[in-house]
Write a structure and sequence with these properties.
Number of strands: 15
CATH architecture of the largest domain: 3-Layer(bba) Sandwich
CATH class of the largest domain: Alpha Beta
Protein name: Putative cyclase
Distance between the termini: 43 Å
Strand order of the largest sheet: 1-15-13-7-9-11-12-4-14
CATH topology of the largest domain: Glucose Oxidase, domain 1
InterPro entries: KFase/CYL (IPR007325), KFase_sf (IPR037175)
Shape: globular
Largest sheet: 9 strands, mixed
GO molecular function, one term: arylformamidase activity
Oligomer: single chain
Strand content: 15-25%
Radius of gyration: 21 Å
Number of domains: 2
């Protein structure tokens, strides 16, 4: 059977179910790392890959790739996703007034935060998306994620794993050199990814165990114009037809500067919701990052003419979580 087409013009836009199913079957990794696997494509990061990545550090410059975690974030309440609420439980005012009950003049400050785990820069865990009731590696969704959390593939399993060679593909800069920003609704194709790699040069090669960061420029636009519909609205992003590229390159993970990773609206005339998620998370076992701030990194890479770096992006080891906030850092 021939592989699904990588040309968006070939998509049957009236039949998302068939297009999703074809790619889920073609690119499924169930059993590849054993029936007990909990990491999916993160298994492709090995010690040799981390040594290779560490050798990329030349200047020692560290760039945070996180958006802010505060009440001025993009969330608007969809599916109870809110922005972080940060509350001080002890303050300098309390210390000045001596109301904290500590001896010999010592005082302190404490705080607490309440937030959904996917409200700002984050990883989607393997228990985040299901396909027809199936979770990663062919397990039943209800056996994996219950009211007690993800009992099998919780994000805590990745806590010491996600350190590797990062590669930035600045598709926004390549395709829209005047602005560096792709239009909302633009579907990034395999041809676009490969053209960006060719334009950026050898340091943009993508291969086994790499973590690919795709900059569309949408986050830069929101910083200038306001959040608008950044959370859940139209956005540039990867086409469903990139699923084969994501599979054959053997990348370990991928992240974008958008809310939802893939192009929105999705590429169908019939009702559809995040079809690329449905293919790559439960079937391919691919870890996806969203809402990353890639602008400073893009400028630094362009100035150096070098697009790969050491990337550390550990999730918080929140037991049973299906996603995690992160502060990923690129070290150049």
């Amino acid at each position: 059977m021939s592989a699904p087409s990588e040309d968006p013009a070939d998509l049957d836009r009236t039949d998302p179910a068939a297009e999703i199913a074809a790619r889920a079957e073609a690119f499924r990794n169930w059993g590849r790392w054993g029936e007990d696997d909990v990491l999916g494509t993160l298994n492709l990061i090995d010690a040799a890959k981390r040594v290779e990545a560490a050798a990329l550090v030349q200047d020692g410059e560290v760039i945070s790739l996180a958006q802010a975690f505060d009440t001025n974030g993009p969330q608007k309440g969809w599916r109870r996703r809110t922005n972080p609420v940060h509350t001080m439980t002890d303050t300098g005012t309390d210390a000045e007034r001596g109301s904290q009950g500590f001896p010999h003049g010592i005082g302190g400050a404490d705080d607490v935060i309440a937030m959904p785990l996917q409200c700002s820069t984050q990883w989607d865990g393997l228990g985040h998306i299901f396909d027809h009731g199936n979770a990663w590696n062919g397990r039943r969704a209800g056996d994996v994620v219950t009211s007690d959390g993800d009992l099998v593939t919780g994000i805590e399993h990745a806590a010491s794993v996600i350190v590797s060679r990062g590669v930035l593909l600045d598709v926004g800069r390549h395709l829209a050199p005047d602005t560096g920003e792709l239009a909302d609704g633009y579907a990034i194709t395999v041809a676009d990814l490969e053209a960006t790699i060719a334009a950026q040069g050898a340091s943009s090669r993508v291969g086994r165990g790499d973590i690919v960061l795709v900059r569309t420029g949408q986050y830069a636009r929101t910083r200038r114009d306001g959040w608008g519909d950044y959370a859940g609205g139209p956005a540039p992003g990867l086409s469903l037809t990139t699923a084969g590229w994501l599979h054959r390159t053997e990348i370990a993970a991928i992240a974008t500067d958008t809310w939802g990773f893939e192009v929105r609206p999705n590429e169908f005339d019939a009702p559809a919701f995040q079809p690329l998620h449905q293919v790559v998370i439960p079937n391919m076992g691919l870890t996806i990052g969203e809402m990353w701030n890639l602008d400073a990194l893009a400028d630094a890479c362009a100035a150096r003419g070098r697009w790969d770096f050491l990337l550390s992006a550990a999730p918080l080891p929140i037991t049973g979580a299906v996603g995690s906030p992160i502060n990923p850092v690129a070290i150049l």
